[in-house]
Write a structure and sequence with these properties.
Layout: H1 3-15, E1 20-27, E2 33-39, E3 48-54, E4 57-62, E5 74-75, H2 82-92
Parallel strand pairs: 4-5
Antiparallel strand pairs: 1-2, 2-3, 3-4
């Protein structure tokens, strides 16, 4: 499965989600595709998630405010809703590098 196909599958699951929405599309410093997600039911300005797809794996960065960089599977900083976090991890767990 290509990076683009992985991103499309994740994006569709995010669109079907009650907790998350796609904020905008990004690329990391290496040009890999990435999307910025936002928790749907919050008033926070910067509470977001970067999903970076690199060499067929999804890398998840929570609330770091910058485009995701490949290297770590995910980096949890702050998130107000455990339900939203759990749902997001369920969405991406099949694509995160172990």
């Amino acid at each position: 499965m290509t990076d683009k196909e992985i991103l499309q599958k994740i994006e569709q699951k995010v669109k079907d989600s009650e907790n998350w929405s796609v904020y905008h599309h990004l690329t990391d410093n290496l040009g890999s595709p990435a999307i910025m997600l936002r928790e749907a039911n919050t008033n926070a300005d910067r509470l977001g998630v970067n999903l970076d797809v690199f060499k067929g794996y999804a890398y998840l960065f929570l609330d770091n405010g910058t485009p995701a960089e490949p290297g770590k599977p995910f980096s949890v900083q702050t998130l107000s809703s455990l339900n939203a976090l759990t749902e997001l991890l369920d969405i991406v767990k099949h694509y995160i590098k172990k």
